[in-house]
Amino acid sequence: MCTLQKRNNLFILTLTGSDQHRLNPTLIATIRSLLSEVKSQSTPGTALITVAEGNFFSNGFDLAWASSQSNGSPSEAVNLLRHMVKLFKPLVADLISLPMPTIAAVTGHAAAAGLLLAMSHDYVMMRRDRGVLYMSEVDLGMTLPDYFTVVMREKVARAEVRRDVLLRGVKVKADEAVVKGLVDSAYDSAEETVGGAVKLGEELVKRKWDGEVYGEIRKALYPEMCNVLGLTAKSVVKARL
User: Which spans are transmembrane here (predicted)?
Assistant: First the structure.
């Protein structure tokens, strides 16, 4: 389901297996547990890279799990979906407050909550030969949780891009995603995407930034997002004055 490795100063969190990496309570709890481990081991000059095996980075919430656990009750399936939405919110908060740079290597499809998972990182690299970014709620007939909308609003600068992603449900490939400002760079294969993420991570950790300072600057950069996620920015001064 998930593994965590440390390569020098880089933490590599991998969603394992060939499935769609749909976010159910078990996967969400596992990712949060690994992020807690990353946080506890953080030192100046560390970074996190999140990758996924197979054709999907993540295909969003596990609707099949909600249906299978609902005993045939549509209303109970909706309640279980809302439960997953509630569980996923603190995972996003974990990433936004993590005391180090974060990079998502999107080597397959990233849809709905899977897209939000990627965009909760500081940098997003994407594979161009396979995979799309897709916010599917308008097609599925679901409104967006408040924190989804705020992340998109604060992370995506251009209003017309937000409109097309959220209100038209466009499926965006890597090169177009770079132009639209949804991702930072595109690569020809999964291996090159992960390699690009590792190269960036290695460049960032050389700066040996203090993690607490880095995390607080990130939180201050996204005030509306932090308000919705229940995060509070604080002043930290560790420089020699």
Answer: 96-118
Q: Per residue in 112-164, pLDDT tens?
A: 999 999 999 999 999 999 899 999 999 999 999 999 999 999 999 999 999 99
In the sheet where 2-7 sits, what is the strand order?
A: 2-7, 10-15, 47-52, 102-106, 123-127, 185-187
Q: Are 112 and 59 in contact (CB under 8 A)?
A: yes
- CA-CA distance, 42 to 60, in Å (whole number)? 28
> Can you read off the two tokens belonging to residue 192?
């090159």
Sheet holding 171-172, edge to edge: 56-58, 109-111, 133-134, 171-172
The per-residue pLDDT for 132 is 97
Start-end of H helices in 50-122: 63-68, 74-97, 113-119
Q: Please give the single-letter amino acid code of residue 48.
A: L
Residue 188 contacts residue 128 (beta carbons within 8 Å) = yes
* No. of helices (H) and no. of strands (E), the chain: 11, 10
Fold entry, domain 2-229? 2-enoyl-CoA Hydratase; Chain A, domain 1 (3.90.226)
pLDDT digits (tens, 9 = 90+) for 67-82: 999 888 999 999 999 9
Burial of residue 115 (CB within 10 Å: 0-12, 13-18, 19+) is: buried
* Alpha-helix runs per DSSP H in the chain: 25-40, 63-68, 74-97, 113-119, 137-140, 146-155, 159-167, 174-180, 190-205, 211-221, 223-229
Beta bridge partners of 103: 49, 123
- Residue 42 sits at φ, ψ, to 5 deg, of -70, 140
